[in-house]
Structure formats: structure tokens, C-alpha cells
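Appendix C reproduces, verbatim, an entry submitted by the partner laboratory led by Prof. M.T., so that reviewers can inspect both the input and the predicted structure.
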Amino acid sequence: MKILNDILAAKTTTRALERQGISVGFVPTMGALHDGHISLLKVARAVGAQRVVASVYVNPTQFDRDEDLKRYPRDLDADFAKLEAAGCDAVFVPKDELMYPCGYQTEVWVPEASRGLCGAHRPGHFVGVTTIVTKLLNIIRPSFLVMGEKDFQQLMLTRLLVSDLNLDTQVVGAPVARDDDGLALSSRNVQLSDVEREQARSIYGGLQAAQRRYYEGERSAERLVVEAKAVMSVAGLEPEYLELRSSLTLAPLNSAHQPCRLLVAAYVGSTRLIDNVVIAGDERAQTA
């Protein structure tokens, strides 16, 4: 596995593959890798990537709180070992001064899709996300960009970004990876105490309860939300948001009569977790 520490090395490596007609799958990460990240590498192979490149970069511009940036888990040696064991061909590991040199001032913004959900509670977060994704896509220039559906708003923003800017890559969403107890895999899970871990399980439990109500015939967004919130409340959690949104446009919905997802964010102790489930329809094959 090649370790690429600067932009020139990354461009040289990926442009050489491009000239040979070799397709590249790209998996951007912020490190602290877990099985969910590794599953993205497998998806990249499955959709046709002949080589897979990952990035490990804790992007400072997408953190709305300095303490959250400082607490974010980091273990670069373990990340390298996991990527190599998974058959990753190269990993791009830039430093802040490389990505945001002195005098840097350009931002990329997808305004409408950034509003609401996480965008309403993390000021500036998605400007940081869409800016770094644009930069990484320009550097790596992959055939396929693979992102997890757990960060569904981020995935939708990226699809719009790629479409609107005519970027020559295909965005592929990968299903939410979960632990045995149903908790969505996240680098932040290591911050949970044993008691908080038990509380966190109610996030997916609540989403599943809403799914069951949908299968029983309920279509009201309000009642589906109440069903999910009740389960979380028993565990002592109050969601930061819990909303039914269109799977295709992210527009808020009053009823589940089109492809939609129930999306949630909640603090468990001081750790913020997000999750979502499909309620109606299954748009997982959608790409941009």
C-alpha cells in the first residue's frame, strides 16, 4: 500500500492509473477506522473499481466546536494496518498546511441541502465538508466515490455537488454498517462509557419501532416520529432532531407516501451520534 503524504504524490499516482485506463474507487475518511470504513472499500471493488484509494484526514473546517476536534479519536498506525489488510492500494494522508495553506480562502457551499438536520445544529459544518470533498475529488479524480449512508445528508450534498459542478465521478452510497447490538458504527463510539453504550442502542431501537409502525400501515410523519422518540425517551435520550425526509431531495415530509428516511441526531453524554433508516422505498442503488 502506497502512503501518499503530499498532493503531487497523490496526483502522480492516480493520473498514472488514469492514463492506463484503470478505474479508481475513492473512500474519504477522517481515520479512527472501523469495520464500516472497511466495508466501503469492499463496495468500491464491487461497483467496478480496479484500484482503491482512501484518505485519512481530520478536516478542521468541518468541526463547529474546537473541543470536538480535539476529542476526535486518532490512531494512524492502526488505520494503516486496517487499510492494508483490506487490500487498499494507496492512502492519501495530507497535513492541514497542505490542504489549507497560508492565504487559503475558497469555500464550496451547497446551500439548500445544507439547511436543517445537522446543518441547523452545526454551523459551518457542511461548508467544510463540501469544500474538502471538492478538493479531494480534484486531487484523486476517482471513477467512483464511496460514502456511507449513515451520514445521509452528507451523501446527498455530495451527490448534488458532483452533479452541479459536472465532476467526473460516480457517487455510490453504502448501507449503514452496524454492530451486533444495532448501533451504527462510528469512530465516536469509542467515546461512550458502558452505560452510555446501552443508552445509545435506543437510537436504532427507536428507528426500528417507527419502521414497524410503517409496516403496520402508519403513514403520518408525526406519529412515526412519536413512536421513535418514545423508545429513546425511555433510555433517557432527547434527540437533537428526529425527522422524516425525502430520500431523493431531503425535503421534510408530513407523510411516508414516497421514498423517505427517518433521520436522527442525539447526544449520548457528550458524544453526538447520528443514524437513519429507510421508511418507504429503497433508493440505495441511486448514484450520481
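The chain has a mean pLDDT of 96. Additional entries are available on request from the coordinating office.
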